[in-house]
Design a protein that fits this description.
5 helices; binds 2-oxoadipic acid; Fumarylacetoacetate hydrolase, domain 2; 241 residues; binds magnesium ion; alpha+beta; 8-stranded mixed beta sheet
Length: 241
């Protein structure tokens, strides 16, 4: 199966909210090939009028690596269609088996980080049972489905040891620290620049950069009110309808 055929399979799976078998069960796919599938998959969305608005890192914390059994840092693309306003509503209709995780977001400036914000990421593997290899998850745009960015804040002196909470209906369901993100989420940006550059993508000023979750993700259920709290930075929230 060609790169573009794999991209069509993954694109259709997302559009139809229907899981597919892992590509690597029946096809040869290495990580470079998987990034080519991801690029082709996102190109289809850009052809449908979506805009690239940023990049997300994945598996930058041990908690996340352990949850999915893949131990490599990965990255994916964010389009405007994936953005949900802070405090907004999200219907689960278009998702397969969505999970949510707390993140820290950077607003990219001309020279480094222009602002920081708490964020939520909704991930929704297009593979059956949320099971995948490194190459599978890269091809699937690193499970990216939607994201919420809270109010942008000036860059604090350090972002390397901030408490991170994920709350559902007012109860803490995950707790961690930004220290879990490669020791310092700014390191995720350094790695992100290098990794995206390897595949010909330059991070642009004005883009959102998600550094990767500090904690494991939790299933997203109808009616849930979900909030990420990042110490000293604020909150990002979402209501599931
Ligand atoms: C892969 C995406 C990981 C993160 O923040 O670590 C990710 C997955 O968990 O399905 O977005
Ligand atoms: Mg994430």
């Amino acid at each position: 199966m060609s790169i573009s055929e794999m991209a069509v399979l993954l694109d259709d799976a997302a559009v139809d909210a229907t899981a597919i078998p892992q590509l690597t069960l029946s096809h040869e796919l290495d990580v470079d090939g998987a990034y080519a599938v991801q690029e082709a998959l996102i190109a289809r969305r850009l052809d449908r009028g979506q805009r690239l608005v940023g990049v997300k890192m994945g598996l930058t914390s041990r908690a996340k690596m352990a949850q999915v059994g893949v131990h490599e840092v990965i990255w994916g693309r964010l389009t405007d269609a994936m953005a949900v306003p802070d405090g907004g509503q999200l219907s689960l209709d278009g998702f397969i088996h969505p999970r949510i995780e707390p993140e820290i977001a950077f607003l990219l400036g001309e020279h480094g980080i222009a602002a920081v914000a708490p964020a939520l990421e909704i991930i929704d593997s297009r593979y059956a049972d949320f099971q995948f290899t490194h190459a599978d998850v890269v091809a699937d745009n690193t499970s990216g489905a939607a994201f919420v960015v809270g109010a942008w804040q000036p860059v604090p002196a350090g972002v390397d040891n901030l408490g991170v909470l994920l709350e559902v209906d007012g109860k803490v369901v995950q707790a961690g620290s930004t220290a879990a993100i490669l020791g310092d989420p700014r390191r995720a940006l350094t790695e992100g620049r290098a990794l995206t550059g390897r595949y010909g993508l330059d991070l642009e000023p004005g883009w959102v950069f998600l550094a990767g979750a500090a904690t494991a993700a939790v299933p997203l259920t109808p009616g849930a009110h979900v909030r990420a709290v990042v110490e000293g930075i604020g909150t990002a929230s979402l209501k599931v309808s």
